[in-house]
Amino acid sequence: MSIGKVTIYCSNEDISEWKSGMLLRKWKSKFPELIQDHHYNIINNNNKPLSMYTFPEYFTGMHYTIKGYKFLFEPYLENFLLFDSKKTELKNIQDKFIGILRKVIGDDNFLYLKRITKNFKTGQPDLFIYNEDTGDYFFAEVKFSDKLQEHQKKLIRLIGKRIPVKLVSVLVKQ
Questions:
Q1: Domain housing 141
Q2: pLDDT 10s digits, 155-170
Q3: Please, what sign has the CA dihedral across residues 128, 148, 168, 52?
Q4: Beta-carbon count within 10 A of 67 CB
Q5: If we measure between CA atoms, which residue out of 86, 87, 84, 57 comes closest to residue 72?
Q6: Which of 2, 17, 116, 144 is the Cys-Cys partner for 23 at CB 3.0 to 4.6 Å?
């Protein structure tokens, strides 16, 4: 398999719309199945934006959605491989993710992924991006202003042996 590098660009307007909650609202109306309900409820019910931490991941997911892909994103993405949740909402998300992953990458790759991630409490890629029509899929590790940590590099190399991984840099257009 492979590890590739990709750069995508956002604008200062994208960041402002994110901070106001408008960008997530736009995406939810256009792609309702891809925006996590609990994230949408934070901006609607609590009237506060999601943190900037989640911006580059969602921005990357939407970048690929426009190209015909779907994505799995959850701030706790690493956790669904490490434990079975007792909370109903998270358990439902875990079951959905596991079902999609197994279907897209196959049982052998899924079991490999589950086995290697046991040794990593954090550092799993941010997104799983896939196209059901073409069968194309990959994990994406997204960076906005931070750098890959050593444990992330090691895990990405292990994942990349069997499943494609892209390192995505989100940069602001100047």
A1: 3-172
A2: 999 999 999 999 999 9
A3: positive
A4: 9
A5: 57
A6: 17
